[in-house]
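Hi support team,

I'm filing this because I wasn't sure whether my run with nicotinamide-adenine-dinucleotide finished correctly. The job status page said complete, but I'd like someone to confirm that the output block is well-formed before I use it downstream. Pasting the exact inputs I used:
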Amino acid sequence: MARFTLPRDLYHGKGSLEALKTFQGKKAMICVGGGSMKRFGFLDRAVAYLKEAGMEVELFEGIEPDPSVETVMRGADAMLKFEPDWIIAMGGGSPIDAAKAMWIKYEYPECTFEDMCKVFGIPELRRKAHFCAISSTSGTATEVTAFSIITDYAKGIKYPIADFEITPDVAIVDPDLAETMPKKLVAHTGMDAMTHAVEAYVSTANCDYTDPLAIHAIEMIMKDLVPSYNGDMAARDRMHNAQCLAGMAFSNALLGIVHSMAHKTGAAFAEYGAHIIHGAANAMYLPKVIAFNAKDETAKKRYGVIVDYMGIADKSASDDEKVAALIAYLRKMNDDLNIPHCIKNYGADSYPCEQGFVPEDVFLAKVHDIAVNALGDACTGSNPRQPSVEEMEKLLKCCYYDTEVDF
Ligand SMILES: NC(=O)c1ccc[n+]([C@@H]2O[C@H](COP(=O)([O-])OP(=O)(O)OC[C@H]3O[C@@H](n4cnc5c(N)ncnc54)[C@H](O)[C@@H]3O)[C@@H](O)[C@H]2O)c1
Ligand SMILES: [Zn+2]
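And here is everything the job wrote out:
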């Protein structure tokens, strides 16, 4: 038996933030990040709509990018004091993911972070509150997914919490919120969405329900991401839907080792100046992982189908040629979006540069542990080809040096 779960309601299109006016409840806690939602007036509008719906509103502000366990615990304490019956999470993946974890702790105060990380082990929620997610970036699709990514900075590791219990009750996909994204954020979140769709399509948990969502998302992202990056606002609006479709696919079909590697490298080098931004990590690793996975016959065929839909190779070409076309296409997208091809060239603000902030000796000293951690990531199980520790280490090295994957 397989399960396919999405939010009960999804409001989309320009101005759909107004849907908040129709919510029924007594108390809403709005969880937001560092200030972009306030700066652009969306937070004030959300507060006004909820008040119009007759609710008392309290804010939990300042959730940092790549939220920490500590922030989750602080937010849960605020919820335990205020006792909301609606949690409204607004912003990028970071505040929405943090709010999902706070929600678990609010409903089950005795639940520890370790308990939350047991895959599909969350007890029944919605005894105290319902959850609405309003996304302002076009990538994570956390507004429709069963996932939340929380960083344990003491360990330097990102942990995915995965359970359909945390799939939001309501998603609001209003492209107005995404129009204020700076270019870099468009690039990173857009390639995150592309990775979600490609990984979901070749995942071992793919099915008839997830395939069309993944394929349509890929077709839209290939047309709209680069124009959106270059300032085309109609393309930016369509990207907001495209990333959401990709999210519907991967929330149910799961992901693969691009994400395992991104989760385990993201914070691993934080003490050397910066962390590797999630979307940029995916953009760099995806072409390498496609080459690795294509050694599996089923995965290779499915990459071929993706290429047929994208129309980037002759239909009569061999699957090997189609895989090569897909890899070349994705690398060209990285060039168009100013994202480097490998960790070695990953510089400040994720711009490509000759020598990035992760020195070779530091990378080599850590690569074994990162490989072990990546294998243990919740996303590894559904990857079409299961790597050994040695293979994972080799793959990570290819992602550091931008060398060819020939194993
Ligand atoms: N839950 C999931 O299914 C899932 C999937 C993929 C990634 N993630 C996680 O999500 C996080 C990344 O989320 P993200 O990429 O959406 O970015 P983010 O939420 O970390 O935000 C990044 C920055 O962009 C700003 N910002 C957000 N929206 C903006 C807007 N419209 N205009 C201007 N500035 C804006 C924020 O204030 C912040 O400074 C990572 O922790 C990643 O691991 C979660
Ligand atoms: Zn992702």
